Structure formats: structure tokens, C-alpha cells
Amino acid sequence: MANDPQRLKALSNAIAVVGVGETDYASDYPASRAGKPTTDHIGFGIRAFKAALNDAGLRREDIDGVIACSVPLGRLVELLGIEPRFSASSFDPATAYMVAIDAIRNGLAESIALIKSLNYRTAGTQFGGPQAMGADNLYYVYYRPWGFTSQGAFDSVVVQRYIELYGLTHRQLGMVAVAERAWARMNPLAIMQRPMTLDDYLRYPFVAEPLRVPDYCLINDGGTCLIVTSVERARTMARHPTVTVKGLGWGEENAAINQLRPKLHFSRIQMRQAGEQCYEVAGIGPKDIDGFYYYDNFTGELFYILENYGYCREGEAANFIETMGIGPGGKFPVNTSGGMISESYMQGWNAQAEMVRQLRGDAGPRQIPNCRHTHYISNTVARATSMILERDSD
Amino acid sequence: MSETQVRPDPVMGLYDAPLWEYVKQKELRLQRCADCGEFRYPPGSHCPNCLSENFEWARLSGRGRVYAWCVFHRQYFPEIAVPNPIVMVQTEEGPIVAANLVGSDPSVLRLDLPMEVTFEPVRWANGKEGMIFQWRLAK
Question: Which residues contact A142 (CB under 8 A, 6 or more apart)?
């Protein structure tokens, strides 16, 4: 079925983010590492919820919808002490926004708390090795007779192929981790505060070559909450500049995913689909974007992501990044909170909070000048999602 | 090699056992749809091309070309030493099949380098004896 642009357009500017809350990733990290977390995953979610309520200037009774992401919905809502008119479970931000848009537009709820929380550090969640989680993807465990497990390794083969085809150097690869670390050092919530130069980066050992330790995301505990409502209602609240969900896009490529085939083609089909849809819904494109955010479980993806979403041509991303600059002071700011590799592994949700802060003009020393539009993308083995957030014009 | 290498057990779903039985006989065979001829790997219930459940275990030539690789420097499995090179080979028949690179240093790897399958004795972590298939440079 071909998509229907007119119907898709109705996604644009249907909801706004009016509240943002996060737990203190940096101060909670040592406790979780020591096996004595300051709370559990339900607790992190509720802490983030309280912070988001406070940010929005809303009372708990104002929230009539809950979307739980990674955290068990029933127990969460029980301890939140509310009886929502609508609730659902989701995972990634784009999907949660889509569910929230449906619920709000159809009158199922007025103000929805999107709550993401997890305790992977305390739970010792394993992404590789004998206890690797199976999830939905067979390849997470299928290649274990050869020792080929862990999402980092599945990305490393793709990055190696990119290196061979396009001449990316290890030093250029390191630009991403170095830039995100520099942003993190301007963010008190960020876990990784130690300075890192390119030479420092190159001294780190490989985990799965060509990816090194700083190319890998953190594993930590925490929570992020966004409160969304209709754009009309948000505009009457007047506590913060209104930040709307302007564009959403989705693309899939599932053929031979367990041979990693889409990844080994740099996920070009799924990402281009997601990008085209997102730009069509938003009515704007790469030239209008002031801040760029991506799901940085591993840094190497950024290169082909920028190519697939039309920021530069195929094979030219390293040059684009070098020329523009993606760190503080650069012309193309990327993951300005430090991302998941240096701030917090909230699986894309810390990026949502940061985008809202940037769009409101509340990002302090790391504020992007005149930040009007941000673009967030997430890419899994078979699925790409893309979204654009917008600050209302004054 | 005096002692048989130990390896984590393969995934054993309903469709997996024949592949490993053939590997024990030093044959690399993958599922091929008996109706439309499409290969599928890892093994599974239906042909994604025509949704047929009919299949045969078709013997591969055992040759292919390097498509991608990585080298583990961090040890994830106690029984698998590092550095541990993984090479993903596009077989002549089409499927991309991952295994270890054996017999050469990974610094020789280049895209499209011709490779061939080889078989090594193995003791699975569950105690059973078997064979594992690996990739080496084509002779």
C-alpha cells in the first residue's frame, strides 16, 4: 500500500511536549555500579514523572494517560497512584508519540505521561556472551558457536564494511565519541565527564574491532518522562515556549535481517523511507534542522545515518562531520547532551528531553543559537524511525 | 590441535538439527524452498518469498567472498579466546554466512576476497561431540 500524504499530514503538530523530567543519571551511577541502586526501575520512572509534572506546572490529577516504555505498566500505574482513562506499553519514542497522537486526537486522553525507565546496570542485563538476551531477534544468540554475539559486534562488521568501501579512518570514526564527550562535559546530568581527545580515543582498546570502548553506549539505571498534550491546550499553558511534534517517519527492511543484510547495506532502504515520510509530514527538510540527535548505542552508525537522511551524499559523511563540526561550537550540533555514550543510556529518551530543552532555549552553556527544529532518528536492524520537533514561532 | 575445542551450543529450534548433522559429515547445506528455490538462513518454517513450507537441504559449493568482518578483542565466552575474528561471507548461492576466520591473520581480509568453508571437530558446551564450519582463504 502506498502511503496517503494527506492522512499522514494529520500527524503533524497534533501534540506538544509540555513537561520533561529526568533522574540524576550522574549521581545515581556510582550507586548502581556498586550494586546499591538508589531505587528500582519503577522508582526511577516515578522520579522522572514527578520532575516532569513540576516542569509542566501540572498536578498529578491532570494526567489522564500513561504510556510505559520498558517499565512494567501495571506496577508503574499502581505506584503512580492515578487511574488513567488510557494506558499503553511502548518502547521507542517515535512509537510512543504515534500512540499518544492517536489517543489525544481521539479524545481517549488529554495529557499523557510517557515514562521510560530501566535498571539494566543493576539487573546486569547482558547484550553479548553466554547470557545474551534473545529479544525478538534470533541473531542476538544464533551465532554464539563462533562467539559472534553483542550488538556492538553486529555494528562493528557494518562499520568495517563502511571503512573498506568509503575509506573512513579510525581517527575520523573517533570524532563522534570525542564530540559527544565534549557536550557531556557541559551537562551536569551526564555520567561521563572525563575529557577525551582524539589521541585519548585512539589509545582505548578495541571491544569488537573497529569499535573501541568509547564507541559503546553506557549501561546505567534511570528514568525519563515527557508529558504530552494537544497542541491547542499546550498553547494555553504559556509556561514554556510550545514544542510540537512536527514530523514522524517510519521505514522497514526485514529481508534476511538475521543475516544482518539490511545493516550490511547501511540500512539505506529503511532510513530513506523514514526520512522521506518524516520530511513530507513536517513540510521541512535537512536544511531547516538546527540540532541533530540519533540513537547512539554505537557511534559508527552516524556516518551512514547522515547520508541516508539527506544531510550529505553517500560516502561523504566523514568529510561532512569534519567540515561542519558536530561538537560544541560546531555548525552541525549532534547529541548535545552527550548522548547515550556519554550522558545516559535511556534508549533515545534522554535525547527527547534534551531536544525539548534546546527548543525552549533552556540548555544553558550548550544552547544551540536560535534552535527552532531538531531531528531525531533511531535505527534498529529492521526498522528506522525519524521525528522532527518544532518550537512555535514567536 | 591436541584437545578438541569447546564451543557454545548452537541454537536448536525445530528446524536447526539437520544443518548440524550435515556439518558433522563435512557438508554445508542450507534450507532451500522446494517450490521457488529461494534459500533461507538461519533455518525456519516458511519461505519468505512464497510462504511455502516445503524445503530441501541443498548442498552449497562452500565458496564465497568476504562481505564484512570484525575482530573481537574483548572476551565474551570463556571457551573462545581472543582475538577472535568473525568473517561474513556472501556464499555463491546468495546467503551471507558468518563464521570464524581460520588459518590466516585477519589483517589479510579485504572485501570480495575468495573464501572456502572448512570443518573442525568441536565439543559443544553441552558435552556432545560434533563439527563446526569455519571460513578460510580459498586455495
Answer: A258, B11, B42
